[in-house]
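Give me structure tokens for this 163-residue protein.
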Amino acid sequence: MSTQLLAREGAEIEAFTALLRAHAATTREFNADLVADHGLTINDYEVMLRLAHAPDRRLRRVDLAEEVFLTPSGITRLLAGLEHSGWVERVSCASDARVTYAQLTEEGLEKLRAAAKSHVASRRKPGFRLISFIRYWQPFREPRLANTVESISSLKHPNSVSA
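Here you go.
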């Protein structure tokens, strides 16, 4: 690879590295707060949020796995913990015995509401790491990278099937 090419792409690579570091830092902080305050991981929280926003507060397990970028076995393990706690339940499909749903229970909805309330409040505290995220990202605000990040966020999981 030529030095000229590396120099030209250097700023974009630095920006992408900064984005990864900022994402990792904020994700670790979100997760630590949720575990300490509510006994939920950030993945638990995301799954419960997605279920809360779904019709009847339920999704097919396979669709939920795709939405949160987990494998079928990964979503099974995650849901097992939520089911054990009584926050999510497994529901059979009346019209197709091969289909099972994950459904947020009333207890799960209450748990999510409590977690969301303190989660949002903690984001407003002085010293929240999002400031670090912004600090990492600020010097690298350039249109091509912003477009790239936007494109990445709209991608489907590599194993998803298009209709």
